[in-house]
Design brief:
The protein has a domain at 2-186 and 223-249 and 288-301: NAD(P)-binding Rossmann-like Domain (Rossmann fold, 3-Layer(aba) Sandwich). Helices cover 39% and strands 15% of the residues. It has helices spanning 11-22, 40-46, 61-65, 83-88, 90-111, 155-174, 196-205, 225-237, 256-266, 291-297, 305-318; strands at residues 2-6, 26-30, 51-54, 73-76, 116-119, 178-183, 186-187, 211-214, 219-220, 223-224, 243-247, 254-255, 273-276. Helix 1 (11-22) links the parallel strand 1 and strand 2 (26-30). The chain is globular, with a radius of gyration of 19 Å. It starts with a strand and ends in a 9-residue tail after the last helix.
Length: 327
């Protein structure tokens, strides 16, 4: 079995490459290292003879065209993510996320593949909360909505909604065997710095007291990256037609203020937290309905937040944010 993984040096990407290798796959990874890390973790994977890596800008169709057909699964994970990027670089978010997907679908329609698995986002339905139509746990069949296209925070959600439309169109018109996956708050070691858990670790370790939380009463359902990667591998092998699947752990939900308390206690520092109103557009609660995911993969999350958080904290303490890092 052969897989192509874009964003292979990124947080979830490298977890996925490892999981595929563990299942006996041969993997070709591609990454421009704009957000992924060229570190010992990546180099260790590259030493596996079944893994090859290529550099390239996936917004350029020639990067896709260097890969032949014959992949049993294509995992298109590469994207610009991170709340800081949404606000500071919304045009880049839209450009990169849409161009990489469009060129990938064009390539897949031309050369063929067993399955084209693309990562959308839970952000695509976040606007339902503004019109009191968000039901929890949230299934895959809810309407997709952007509350305010003028708010740069919605640049990412807009790119993902448009991407889901692209996937449906290429599946219908060209027969591309697309599976749309909506990740929900994946966390773990080496997952980048511009996400809530590493940001809280960084700020707490940096001495911010009290730790100010914008939207501390909001809740999230966190899924450990190793579980997410296992789900993704099994999705390539599951008997699926075109469909959308939530990716995450719908069995746990935690308020951000409680998460902050856990991190502060783990760091053995003063447990001082102050909650302030959340930014406009931020979702109050997020909990996915993962029954479809678990049914088609025959797998359930194995790592609880209590089990996954300590190793995540330890990794970020040992690997502070590089001065040049933006995501």
């Amino acid at each position: 079995m052969k897989a192509l993984v874009t964003g292979a040096a990124g947080g979830l990407g490298l977890y996925l490459v490892r999981a595929l290798l563990a299942h006996g796959w041969h993997v070709t990874g591609v990454d421009d290292l704009s957000r992924g890390r060229d570190d010992e973790d990546l180099r260790a994977v590259r030493r596996d003879v079944r893994a090859t890596f290529a550099a390239g800008d996936l917004t350029d169709p020639s990067t896709w065209n260097q890969f032949p057909g014959g992949f049993d699964a294509v995992y298109h994970l590469a994207a610009v993510n991170g709340t800081r990027n949404f606000y500071e670089h919304p045009a880049r978010v839209l450009r990169v996320n849409l161009l990489t997907l469009m060129h990938g679908l064009e390539w897949a329609a031309r050369v063929g593949c067993g399955r084209f698995i693309w990562t959308s986002s839970s952000e695509v339905y976040a606007g339902l909360e503004d019109i009191d139509r968000l039901v929890l746990p949230t299934s895959e069949d809810v309407p997709l909505i952007v509350s305010d296209v003028g708010n740069p925070r919605w640049s990412y959600a807009s790119s993902k909604i448009a991407g889901e439309a692209l996937c449906a169109a290429y599946a219908r018109e060209f027969g591309v065997p697309v599976v749309v996956v909506r990740p929900h708050n994946i966390y773990g070691r080496r997952m980048g710095w511009d996400h809530v858990i590493p940001e809280l670790i960084e700020r707490a370790q940096g001495g911010e007291r009290p730790l100010v939380l914008r939207g501390g009463d909001q809740t999230r359902s966190f899924c450990f990256a190793e579980d997410a990667a296992e789900f993704l591998v099994r999705l390539a092998e599951a008997p699926l037609d075109l469909r959308t699947v939530n990716l995450g752990n719908g069995r746990e939900e935690i308020a951000i203020v409680d998460l902050a308390h856990r991190i502060l206690r783990a760091l053995n520092v003063a447990d001082e937290v102050r909650s302030e109103p959340a930014p406009v557009g931020s979702v109050a609660r997020r909990r996915p309905d993962t029954r479809r995911l678990e049914a088609v993969t025959g797998y359930a999350p194995r790592v609880t937040l209590d089990e996954g958080l300590p190793s995540t904290i330890a990794w970020y303490l040992a690997h502070p944010r590089p001065a040049s890092s933006v995501g």
